[in-house]
Structures are given as C-alpha cells and as structure tokens.
Design a protein that fits this description.
Structural class: alpha+beta
Largest sheet: 7 strands, mixed
Shape: elongated
Order of helices and strands: EEHHHHHHEEEHHHEHEEEEHHHHEHEHHE
Strand order of the largest sheet: 11-6-3-4-5-12-13
Number of helices: 17
Distance between the termini: 84 Å
Radius of gyration: 32 Å
Strand content: 5-15%
C-alpha cells in the first residue's frame, strides 16, 4: 500500500522500506515551543521534526561560526586580552559574530517553516511569523552590540596604541610569557596638558609617575611640581651632555621649568634623542627619569581640556572636597572665579567640575592642586568598575581616541590591562613633593628627592625591637636643607600616610591644615 497525498494521489513506498513521517507541531502553542527549542539549540527544531540531515547541517554551520568565538572566550585571561588588543583579531571577531547571527536567524526561520502545522489558519501563521521575527531581533541585539564594541575597540587601538615610534621606550621584545622582561616594576608617566595632544607648544602642567609592581599591582605615584627648576637628565642621555647641570638657560625662567621641557627641547634640539613621533614626550620622560632616579618606560598624555569628556563618559566621579575649589579665575590677572565647588564628603562631579577640581588654583597653590590631581586619579581608579566601563564603553573609547596620546605599544596592551586590573585590587600610594625644609622647587636637592623615591618604592624593614627615629616636620619658612626647630616627631617627609589623610573628608581647621610638608599620601 502506498501513502495518499492531500490531492488524493497515492505514492507507492519503496519495497521493503517504510519512510518515517516528518513531525509537525500541533497548534500555535506547540509551534512556539519548538521554535524556542530551535533558538536555544542549533538544529534542535530540525531534529525534533525528524530532519536529521538538516539538523546536522545546522549544527555544523553553527559550530563553524561560533566555534572560534567560544574558543577565545573559554581560554585563559591573557588570550582574551590578546584578542581585545589586536585590531585584526577584533575585526575578525566582529565578522564572525555577524556571520553567526545570520546563520542562526536562517536556521531559526527554516526550523519554523519545517515544524509549523500544515494548513494552519492565517491568524496562527501570522502570529508564528511575528514571534520568530521578534525572537530574531531580541537575540540579534547582543550580537550586534558585541560586533560594534569589537569595531570600536579596534579603532581605539589603531588610533592610540599602534605605530607609535619612540626613542625612549624599552627595546626588548615583548613576549606573552615575560612581557616585563623580569623587572619588578613598570613606570608610566601620566601627563596632563592644555591644548590638543598633537599640538606643538603644550605645557605639561600635570606630571605624575605611576610605578607599578608587576607581580602584585601595588602602585606608588610621584607628583612633581610644574615649576621645578634645573630638572636633571640621565647621564647616558644626549640631553645630559647639553644640560650637565640641569635644564636651565638664559631668558625667562618660565621657559626652564619642568613643565616647559615638553615644549622647549624639541624646539631647541630637534632630533636630539633619535627618531620619534613625540620628541617632547621623550624629553619629559628623560627629565623625570633623571630627576627621580628611576627609569620611565612609557608615557600617557591626556589633554586636560578633553579630560571632562572622559569623566562624563564614565558617568562622573566621586571625591571629597575639603575646602572651596575655584572654578575659573586667574590670580595673576586679578580675574575672580565664576564660583566655587562647595566642600563636602562624597561629592559627585561631572566632567566640567572634575576638571576644575583637578586644575583650579585661584588663591591656592600648585601643591594643593597636585594633591587634588592625585585624589582625582584615585577617584577614577575607584570609578572604573567593569560594568560601568562596559555600559559606557563606546563613549569612553570615542573620548579617549581624541584626547589620549601614548607610546605604549599595542603588543604590550594585554599585559598592561592585566596589570591595571591587579592595580585596582592592590594598594596605591602617593608621594607629592611640597615645599619644606627638605624640598624647594626653585633649588631642588636631587639627592634627597632620589632617596625619597627609593624609600617609597622599597621602604626599609624595621625591627620590632627598635623604635623608628622620627624625622622633623617641614617648615615652609625654614631655609631648604635646614631642619625645622618646631618639628613634629610624628611626620616624616617622604613617608606614605593613609589615603584618608589627603583624599578623605576632613575640612581644613581654623588654625590651618596645610603644614607645607614635602611628603606624601597613600591610597588603597
């Protein structure tokens, strides 16, 4: 006997072999249930319907598209970081995600057509089609976002971290097994300057060296005053031959401050350090290295005028404000501030106010501003939560591409991102050089500066049986190099103190809270 078709035609089955009928769902509810199975398991709808060949093909196609993405996601952390730091891999991932999405949608639509009931009413057919379409859109959204993020990240890496030629970066090849070449610390100079990052004549009014322990992520930052005179250069640098006694010369003293090195050295001695895309950055790296006595491996320059865009992209930052902070104003010209940021704990600042928190100095000092800049760095580290960064990533990447310049090679990005994540979990200590009996920016004691740096990076171990000998408190009225007669036995210039002492909420007392110490603060 043969089977009878809908039109009544009998089809004779092959002798000795009975064909297995193909299954179809019953009613709209059953159809939607099988469609959900097909959406969750590639080929599941075909297998349910008894179409093994189509189901196997769907599985193979899905594995071919999703396999590489799943493989990368399941790998160790360094492999994932390698993916997000390589523009070629990122673009390939975006293409693979798009292909996987298209294949998934085609399989889902074909599964629906295979299992929907024959001769179903138009209303049910329309409902099923709408359900499948909505399901495709819902599942497509994350894939589209992932592909978009991959392309944005690739664009960021290509614009900021690729093809940066520097005369002062470490020359050892970067390897996955040992990206830091066995060194205990990597030192990155954080620079803030007014004007475009590619514009000549930028003054680096914010200079902070971040020294990170490559094993633990514990970090010590050193804030240098912009008006430091006679900046030193390493003895093996061509700049030391030009300025053996330090960065100094004839004319306006303002042209020989530390913040003028970035601008002046390329103008006075173009090409002196070798081929470079940013001679000013190479010069300021050498000046900070010679002054502090530690290597400076890389730099990161941020245009302060665009800094507010980054903070806005993060959704703001939270800081403690201990005294009124001027917004606008110019002390030299007698221009009053537009208004002040009011003191208070846990103040939420948008980009514009965060910028003035970091740079405002009307009626204040460069050193107070340096403290606030250090606190702003700590606030940004605290704010950089993975979920926040993911949610606002496109805005952050767009802002960073316009205002950031660096000589960090993209091959080092996986290790640097990994180190930054450990830095967030570790301790962050800070040294801010302030006027004191031990430090005078106009006539610096470089031996004392380097010893301070050495102690901060490798604090001496003290025996529990031997009490620590106190160091005098710095007195701003005392001549440099002369201990203050009114020294406090509890303050040690150059020693770290808890973060809440400088970045916590502790309004300045009426008798004054700025001792003028040339020492430090500690973050955690």
């Amino acid at each position: 006997m043969g089977a009878v078709t809908r039109r009544g035609t009998r089809v004779r089955a092959a002798p000795g072999k009975r064909r297995r009928p193909k299954r179809r769902a019953r009613g709209l509810r059953g159809t939607l249930g099988v469609v959900l199975l097909a959406a969750a398991v590639p080929g599941g709808g075909f297998f349910w319907a008894g179409r093994k060949i189509a189901g196997t093909a769907a599985v193979l196609l899905s594995l071919g598209a999703l396999g590489p993405l799943v493989w990368f996601a399941a790998r160790d952390r360094q492999t994932v970081l390698l993916l997000v730091s390589d523009p070629v891999r990122l673009k390939a991932a975006a293409v693979m995600a798009t292909i996987a999405l298209v294949i998934w949608a085609l399989v889902l639509v074909a599964s629906y057509r295979a299992i929907r009931p024959s001769g179903q009413p138009r209303a049910q057919a329309f409902g099923g089609a709408v359900f499948v379409s909505v399901l495709c859109l819902v599942v497509a959204a994350p894939a589209v976002v992932a592909a978009r993020y991959a392309l944005v990240q690739a664009d960021l890496v290509e614009n900021v971290f690729q093809d940066n030629q520097s005369a002062t970066t470490p020359q050892e090849p970067v390897t996955r097994e040992d990206p830091w070449h066995g060194t205990e610390r990597v030192n990155v100079l954080l620079l803030g300057g007014d004007g475009g990052i590619d514009r000549d004549g930028v003054r680096t009014d914010s200079m902070i060296l971040a020294s990170m322990d490559t094993r633990t992520g514990n970090t010590t930052t050193f804030s240098l005053p912009r008006n430091l005179m006679d900046a030193q250069f390493p003895e093996n640098s061509p700049l030391h031959d030009l300025y053996p006694e330090g960065f100094a010369g004839e004319g306006d003293d303002g042209n020989w401050m530390l913040n003028a090195v970035y601008r002046e050295v390329p103008l006075l001695h173009p090409g002196v350090l070798g081929r470079s895309d940013n001679e000013g950055a190479d010069a300021i790296k050498m000046a900070v290295q010679g002054t502090l006595g530690v290597p400076v491996d890389y730099y990161l320059l941020i245009n302060l005028a665009g800094f507010e865009k980054v903070v806005d992209a993060m959704g703001g930052v939270t800081v403690n404000i201990n005294e009124p902070i001027p917004v606008g104003g110019n002390t030299d010209r007698g221009i009053l501030p537009d208004y002040y940021l009011d003191p208070g704990p846990a103040q939420r600042l948008d980009g514009f106010r965060a910028l003035w928190f970091a740079r405002g100095r009307f009626g204040s000092t460069d050193y107070a501003r340096m403290e606030r800049q250090r606190c702003m760095v700590d606030a940004i580290i605290t704010e950089a939560r993975p979920l926040t960064l993911l949610r606002r990533y496109q805005a952050l990447a767009a802002a960073s591409k316009q205002i950031v310049r660096t000589d960090v090679p993209n091959t080092l990005l996986p290790a640097l991102v990994d180190l930054a994540s450990r830095m967030k979990q570790g301790r962050v200590r800070s040294v801010v050089f302030r006027p004191s009996a031990y430090f005078n920016s106009a006539n610096p004691d470089f031996d004392w500066i380097r010893e301070t740096v050495r102690k901060a990076l490798k604090p001496p171990r003290r025996s529990s049986d031997t009490p620590a000998s106190p160091s005098p408190t710095a007195d701003p009225e005392t001549a440099p190099g002369t201990p203050s007669p009114s020294a406090s036995p509890t303050t040690d210039p150059g020693a770290a103190v808890p973060a809440e002492d400088s970045c916590g909420y502790a309004p300045v007392a009426a008798d004054g809270g700025d001792s003028g110490e040339a020492s430090t603060s500690l973050g955690n």
